[in-house]
Amino acid sequence: MTGSEEFGDLRRAVRDWCTATIPRDWRDRQRGAAHDQYIAFQRWWRDELAAAGYFIPHWPRRWGGVEMTLPEQVVLHEELARGDAPRLGITQVSVFNAAPAIMHAGTEEQQQRYLPAIAAGQIWCQGFSEPNAGSDLAGLQTRAVRDGDHYVVNGQKIWTSMAREAEQCILLARTDPDAPKTKGISFFVMDMRSPGIEVRPIKNLVGDSEFCELFMDDVIVPAENLIGAEHDGWRVSQATLGSERAVSLIGLAELLRRNGRDFLIEAAAGWTMADGTPALDDSGVREAIGGLYGEVEILRLVLTRMVTNLLHHGGAGPEASVVKIYYSELLQRLMKFASELHGLPAQLLRAGVPSSGWETHDFARDFIHSYSWTIGGGTNEIMRNIVGEQVLGLPREPRPEGARR
Amino acid sequence: MSISGSPVRLSAAERAELQQTARRVLGEHAPMDRVRDLLDDELGHDPALLDTLVGLGWTSMHLPERVGGYGASFADTAVVVSELGRALTPGPLVSTAIIAAAALAMSPNLDLASTWVPRLADGSCTATVAIAGESGHCAAASIGPRWRRESGGVVLHGIATFVLDAASAHALVVFARGDDGVIAALVECAQRGVVITQTPALDQTRRPASVSFDGVALGPSAILAEPRGAASLLTRVVDVGATAMALDSFGIAEVVVERTAEYVKQRYQFGRPIGSFQAIKHRLADAVLLVETSRVAVDHAAAAVDLGDPFPERERVIAAATAKAYVCDAAVKICGDSLQSHGGIGFTWEHDTHLYFKRAMLNQALFGTSRWHRRRVADEVLPLAGSSSTV
Is A109 a catalytic residue? Predict the structure, then answer.
């Protein structure tokens, strides 16, 4: 693992910057914040990161990054977590999903059109899932029909985070209804100000309304917004699940370590067992925490290994699925344990703290919220299919008669 | 610390080559039918194989140059240890060259270290470590043998259990406890009062024994560590032993996943390969996840327990104890799930599943249970609780 002595200059610089920049009471001030207060806070935080060069540090200089190496990024994320930095959520799609696809499959002209805006902090959303295309994403039914120099889009998307704030949307739509499922999909950039788009927020189970439904009624998307070849959108979308996503996981892993595990240890020092003895004196509790402690260390190790492999051999591959399963289920195990150990006090309803990611310090709520990670981004069941089929070469499940391939 | 100089690390390519060589050599010299032949053999291993492995440098590469080794890193030898687990290789390579040699090399008694480590490295002698008492635990409080001072030296009494390969060893690194704390001593097996009795384990690829010490008298020169140094030597030896068990289990886990995947691809029921059923596929996906997370855990532990350049104590304990608990548990889970996926055929003596399963279970129990190792991690990262301290 990165020794804490490595990259001393960067480490000190980030640490000093955190001290000078992050308000110590930001959690208190954000607790119970309304949606627009949350968005305003996020925009402020994004601009601070950008001013320091920490917003898209891994990007090429050409597009406004500083080409930070992987170990440097690990240090950056370690120090941000140590400094109790808020989690930047509003630009997840633009930086980690849209930009990689555009860099990978976009034309020079498209790169020049979109990347500077993303670098400047533009918010994007992702129109992939549909009510009838969740795990079976390739079964999506939103249609894009070519009409001269543009496409006409009709359909419905769901679970689209930040759709209300987003200026652009990366959209998967079917362009060839007769081709096999994955062969007839195209990847577009859709301007969210286009006429015919309706956005309806969905309140999630912890009470936030970050994700939305997206309805498209004869929306005009210029043909020049097609990323990659027509009908090749599935491949383009898969390429975005690459090393960039892994890099973003480094930050999540650090947050789990600091704000999940280490905070649990800190908080549990004040908890007691039924007989009034300290919870941390209980041998079962100690054993469980000892196990979780090690498993969080393993997360850092496996993530570092994966990203290193990606950098050396390129391509994300199925390792990303392994890491997604491990991270999400470790997060869930840890929050479940903490919530159960804390017992009734963890059940109190408290206003949430947006910008604190999946570790708000309210363990029962965080446990429930953790399911967004085992469901979202491809359910863990789908991930297990991918691991079984692509790593071990196990045969696919036969499809029922008449099912579309 | 008795060792100086930093280890010479192999490059990634060299390490991969070492692994391939190990796999090939063990496949040629100790294939599965040979492993099976030795299950009921009294010695339990093939001395010629040990000579071959000595000749390849595998008993000496990680040992300090000053005591006859090559000064490579522990992480390099780790590759070989995993291959031994993967091949279910019987024999004392790990108990003598990895664990006992490390104990000697790390001991403050430089005379004994420089006498014995070269003998273990060149295979002319073998040695093994004796710690646990009847309970099988290897925490300081559970050490089997007892010591007391007598006429300028010490006398050992009591029993050590699950001493690997003791019956074929020339010497024992014995940890003993007494009123003034723990000591470590070198005892030659031929010494008066030493009685070694094999205690066959469910895992018949291994040869554990119990060793009774009936008034074994030792002069001061046989003491490897006095109470002040022996406690820390014990934790270092436990960390090395625990890491070795985790490496062996990693090799088992990896090969069992490969073999199970092959089986479920060719076994048809209901007109399709059973590997196409999600009940089977998802369990194997979980096994892949355990193998990939175990891989980084053992690599990290192997770096942590390096003889020449170990991590600071806290990081070393966390790394070794985490690997021991996590990886040994993972291997047992993977073996059990493999048995389940194989169905009836996996339940037969003829099928290899039980050989992997039994060895993985012994690894899990040797050098400290998973429970205890998790509590060791806790003791490093939580405030020490009087009632639940494991130290």
Answer: no
